[in-house]
Amino acid sequence: MRPMRVTVSGRKVKVYRFANQSSDLTSRLSKAGKVRKWVERLLLRSRRYRMWRAKKHAMGNVALSPFISVVLDPVAAVVTMDPWLIDITRNTNYLYELDVPEHLLIVPDTPLSALETERLVLAKDLAPYVTNVHPNPYLLPEVNSL
After folding, report:
1. Single pTM value for the model
2. How does residue 5 score in pLDDT terms, banded at 50, 70 and 90?
3. How far apart are CA 67 and CA 32, in angstroms?
4. What are the domain boundaries of the chain?
5. Distances in whole angstroms, Cα of residue 111 to Cα of each of 32, 71, 74, 118, 131
6. CA-only gyration radius of the chain, Å
């Protein structure tokens, strides 16, 4: 596997986030108490901890995560083998387009992350980076039961 990396530049990268509402654009850590946020910010100064935390997030351990998952290619996310991501791409109402500063993006070191073009944004809120919101074109239609 390739090592995870944090890139630093002034460049912005077009990414996408599947979400049901604008509150889905915030990290889970942003909802934590002050002490927990303070401790996590201190720990995130360590590159080793940041990369370990990113890998844990990409593997599904998102409780109090400082990251927000996005993808470079929504079609790659839709055709993934990851059942969790399939559920997200097929059952969320909106597809957000964002221009995120490249230095905030982390590439998780997991095989599925590479296939899905997953990136993690180290931010408490993606709202400042939203450029467009579309109805999710991959949303499965509701099935009415009799």
Report:
1. 0.83
2. very low
3. 13
4. 12-135
5. 30, 14, 17, 10, 29
6. 15
